[in-house]
Design brief:
This protein is of the alpha+beta class. It contains 17 helices and 10 strands. It is globular. The strands form 3 sheets. A 5-stranded mixed β-sheet has the order 3-5-6-4-7, with helices on both faces. It has helices at 2-9, 24-28, 30-41, 48-55, 57-70, 96-114, 130-140, 158-161, 164-171, 178-188, 199-219, 239-257, 270-273, 291-305, 311-317, 319-325, 331-337; strands at 79-83, 89-93, 121-122, 149-154, 224-228, 231-236, 266-269, 275-277, 280-282, 287-289.
Length: 343
Amino acid sequence: MRAGRVTERSQTKSKGMKRHGNLYDKICSEDNLIHAYEKARKGKSHTYGVRLFEKCLKNNMRKLQTELITGTYRTSEYSVFTIYDPKEREIYRLPFKDRVVHHAIMNVMEPIWTSIFIQHTYSCIKGRGIHAVVKALKRDLNDIENTLYCLKMDVKKFYPSVDHEILKTIIRRKVKDNRLLNLLDKIIDSAPGVPIGNYLSQFFANLYLSYFDHWLKEIKQVRYYYRYADDMVILAANKPYLHDLLKDIESYLKNELNLQLKGNFQIFPVEKRGIDFVGYKLYHTHILMRKTIKKSLCRKAARLNKKDINAINYRMQIAPWLGWAKHCNSKHLIKKVINEKVL
C-alpha cells in the first residue's frame, strides 16, 4: 500500500518515533476552547458570523464543548467561492464555530507538528515567513561554489491533490489518541483534497510534505533546500546532479504521496537568471523585488504622486511595498518612483 511506504522510507530516528496520546481532553477543555475562540475572532470581531455566534456566546461555547466531548461534532457546510488574484483558486469558508474548533486543535497540536518540520520548511509557521526564507537564502548564497545552479519546482494542483488516506497515515505517525484521530479524519474528509481557507489546511499541507523534506535532507543528503508551501528551491554546484535529483523527486512524489510536479520546473545558473522566489529575485551579490510587485508599486506611486496628500498618509498608502523593499536592494527604485517627501 502506497501510504504504508511513507512510514518506512521516510522514518527518522528522533522525529518519527514518539507518538502522542491523551490529547483530546486538552482540546475539549474549557480554557482551551475560550483561548481558541479569542484567537478565531481576532481581527474579525465585526464580521457577521462572529457577531451571530456571540449573541448567545455562553450557550454556543457550551454546546460546542458538549459536541466535542460526546463525539457528535460534525464539520459544517462549506461556503465555496473563487478568487482570481494572484491566480484562480477555490476558497472554502466555514462558519465561525468550526474555526474555533480548528484553533482549539492547533493550540494543542502546533508544537507537536512543528517539531516534525525541518529547519527550512516555511509558510504558516511562527517565525518562518517570507523574510525568514529570504534571510536563509541570502546567507547560503555566500557559498557561491556550491550554489551555482538552482532547481525550482512546485507541485501540480497541490491542495486539491492531497490524498486523504496518505495524510491520515502521516498524522498517525505522531498521534495515537483515537478520539482525536476520529475528529481529524472527519475534518479531512469534509472536503476534497486540502481545502484552501481552512486554518487546519495550512498545517495539513506542511505535514503532507514533511517526510519528503526529511527524505531530501537525510537520505538524499541535499544541503541547500528550501520549501515555502509547495514551492521548492534546491541549490547545487552543477546541473547533472540536479537533473538526476529531479528524477528521484518525481518518483518519490508519485509513489509515496500521489503527487505530480508541474511541467514548468527549471534548472538554471543562479548568476544569469536569479532565483524568483517568495516575491524576490535573489542573486549571489544582491536581491531585487519581483517584477510584478515592482510594477504594482510603480502604479500605486504614480496615482499618489498626482494627489496632494501629506507625507504620513502617503507612507501609509505604500507601506506594504516599503516592507518588501526593506529586505532587498531597492534604494534606487524607491527614490525613483515615490514622492520625495516620504523619504
